[in-house]
Amino acid sequence: MTDEWKAPAKVDAQSGDEKSWKLLEKTLLASVQEQRRSRRWGIFFKLLTFVYLFGALMLFTPLMDMEKAATRSANYTALIEVTGVIADKEQASADNIVGSLRAAFEDDKVKGVVLRINSPGGSPVQSGYVYDEIVRLRALHPDIKVYAVISDLGASGAYYIASAADQIYADKASLVGSIGVTAAGYGFVGTMEKLGVERRTYTSGEHKSFLDPFQPQKPEETQFWQGVLDTTHQQFISSVKKGRGDRLKDKEHPELFSGLVWSGEQALPLGLIDGLGSASSVARDVIGEKELVDFTVQESTFDRFSKKLGASVAEQLAMWMGFHGPSLR
């Protein structure tokens, strides 16, 4: 009799525990869902604020530029930056530099152009394009002078460009020159032999693979390639001589075209530059218009923002996916 009455009590206790757990589970699930909902709304409002601020920036940036233009003096000096490697698709590509030059020369308020150079050089083709365009624009606009100002480095193709200017200035510690041509590579023939690896090349021309680093050099091909470099070097020398004229002291110093570089202080008596100065001092003291207006072709605000946004989004996605790269701690 006593046992019969105890069984229902156990059932009621188990049933009560189940209900409690279900209630607790529902409460936890509801809390999690509420947190997720709150997080989604938080992200939505952050994005909305971000879009609003970005739209405001895009709207007011042109107005700020117009306001700056309106407050400028009657005339000014155009500044064009030549920074980094001179090559196609780079910031210092011929397209960018030439576009900046044309815009500057077409501006009625520009009284002089300063090319501020900080470059180790690069493609002789790209440098040649810019050189020729400077010569052409100077002939079309004889009243507008072009001044190259070398900051840290104006070497090789960068000096090629500078030599087309009316005058060249540099700091006393700038590195100037490197009038030469180089082409470098590696040879892996001995390594291939040691590894027992056989190179198989199929070509339809006798010398098609003459620059292949896995094949032995042939004297006639080496001589041919040296001829190509010498021809390019002579083109470089000829352009520099045309640009600098009698100012060059190459007869007294034939090593000017050897590929060496000099400090600005050394370059001055050699005729490689015309004086010591900066972009601002040239604008103020030589051109006579101290205000510098940047005509350098730049990425648009939207492009710069897109790149930064893309990097930020990629970083957030990596974090959400649980990926963490190497770190030093």
UniProtKB/TrEMBL annotation:
Keywords: Hydrolase, Membrane, Protease, Serine protease, Transmembrane, Transmembrane helix. Residues 143-284 form the Peptidase S49 domain. The chain crosses the membrane at residues 43-64. CDD domains: S49_Sppa_N_C. InterPro entries: ClpP/crotonase-like_dom_sf, Pept_S49_SppA, Peptidase_S49, S49_SppA_C. The keyword Protease applies. NCBIfam families: SppA_dom (TIGR00706). Belongs to the peptidase S49 family. This is Signal peptide peptidase SppA. It comes from Pseudomonas violetae.
